[in-house]
Amino acid sequence: MFIIYLIILFKLINGEISIRPPGIGKNNSIYILSLNSPLQLDCEVEYGDFDDIEDINALEWVRGKMKIGNNWLSIYTQPKIDEKRRWLRQSLYIPKITEQNSGEYKCLFFDDLQKTINLFILKNLEWKTKINKIGAQIGQPLTINCGAENIPDEAIQILDSKGRAIEEVLDEVLVTGAEITLTKIGKEHKGLKIRCVAVRPINLKNLGLSEDLDINSVDSVHTDELDLIIDVWIPPKFDDHFSSSNHRHYAIPGSKQLLRWTITESNPPVKIWTLNKDGEILIEKEKIKIIQNLNETTKPFFAVLIENVQDEDYGRYTLTAHNGILESHQTQTLVITR
Length: 338
Hints:
- This protein is mostly beta strands.
- It has three domains: 2-122, Sandwich (Immunoglobulin-like), CATH 2.60.40.10; 133-234, Immunoglobulin-like (Sandwich), CATH 2.60.40; 240-336, Immunoglobulin-like.
- The chain is built from three helices and 24 strands.
- The chain has helices spanning 2-12, 166-169, 211-214, and strands at 16-20, 30-34, 39-46, 59-63, 66-67, 76-82, 87-94, 103-109, 113-122, 133-137, 142-145, 156-160, 173-176, 179-182, 193-202, 220-239, 248-251, 257-267, 272-277, 280-281, 288-293, 301-306, 315-322, 327-336.
- The strands form five sheets. Strands 10, 12, 15, 16, 18, 21 and 22 form a seven-stranded mixed β-sheet that branches. It has a five-stranded mixed β-sheet with strand order 2-9-8-4-5, with no helix packed on it. Strands 17-24-23-19-20 form a five-stranded mixed β-sheet, with no helix packed on it.
- It is elongated and about 105 Å long.
- The N and C termini lie far apart (108 Å).
- 18% of the residues are buried.
């Protein structure tokens, strides 16, 4: 065992630890991160034949005096070995950065090779748009504010999902500072992704670096992103297929009559129906049955079945469909015939 250890030490003379992606500042050892963002750092060592090593966890991540395990929840490691390429990797994962993750970390190989990094956590920007899904009624203009508090407009970029300037991709779009306006949104804009990018300068001296890190360190910038999705609101649209010309139905007293309304299009989907007869809300009662379906996988419909038409049943039936944002209505008239 001692001989194997000496062999490993001899190989370590030419070994080197690298961490990817590299950081900034002195020795590329400083990482500036945003709250709630994910982090993956790959620590690799190359030195020769790994057949001498029985435990691939000989390469390890350490914080303070504690080794970071591979079964932790908020922070964990994952080893990988490639004997053909003669490298060993230990990846550090932090799925969601918190302020408690700031500080010094070391990647060690048999305590003989090591590389130290420092994580600094920035508070998230306060974006002026607080929601990720923004919309307007079809045919209307839509203004999107990509600004952030304490960030000048000239430090804001507005891009599409592929990183292209939005004004180069969309027609009829106006850019004013950190705002863009689509002069008339249509169905083609539904689901369109907008990336708001803020570039803020970082003075490393203000991070409270230790003296050894502060030497030769340079200022940097940090990029924050906000992803927005455009929604196009469409008022409920009624289908005329189930109603006759001018929405008039003729019924003989004592007969059975069905009045049906079907929605062919709505965004968001219809959520609420309201039925009025001659200006008063109509509810289900004896001889009148109300049937409704709000299933989003089929066309929503609302129907009134009158089992035995009487004089009081003739008149105007107005159904209002509301999708939570917009509403539409359609009137069908039941007319007496002899």
